[in-house]
Amino acid sequence: MEIETVPVSFVFLISDAAAVDKYGDSLRSDIRKSTIVSSHCKSISSPNRMSRPTDWVPSLWMETFQNLLADELEYEDRWNLNFGYQLTNDLTNNERKKGWKIFIECVHGNFQCSSCRKTWSSARVTLLFRYILRGTRGSVTMRPFGQICRSCQDDQFELPGFSEEHVENALLRLFAKIRKNCYGEDTGEDHVGDSGDSEVKTKPHEKALCQACRDGICCQDEEEEEEDDDDN
Question: Which residues form the 3CxxC-type domain (predicted)?
């Protein structure tokens, strides 16, 4: 009977406890880094329009942006969409002079905790857009804001996933803003891309778990201010 021998190097690794611990720490670190990267930059097939995807998929936004571009901006200017995960809504005087503008949108999104795998939905996911038209080139930079898992509360902001429908509606409202502020059109933008998100009644989310609340630009804060104005 032929007996398979175990490589000496493998025996050495498992017999050295310190080496095992060091290797395990290194492996866990690599896995953690991989998880962080994938949570920000996943590029998988686009979710179904009626599904509740929890993955942040930049390619879905870029593809939808390009698909809508020709119909929504009927000009010869070239526009592109990029992502900035440290983007803020604070424009310097120099940026304002150059023509940069801000658009903050509130949409429905879905989340999944990377630790416990719990999922949840929110009708108040904040998106921040910066956009500019200079000459014949237009540029949009987008930032999605995350939320922390209520069960884990580990200060890990999970990025949201969106259905195709919500992506399309958010971009339609963005294009309406661009037509108004960059081309001077009267767009009647209040009803553009209306997906009914504003009609969804959900409990206010916990501000301590919301990245946009932490940065002071959450759409929930704007809604609360409007309600206070209505009560006065």
Answer: 106-216
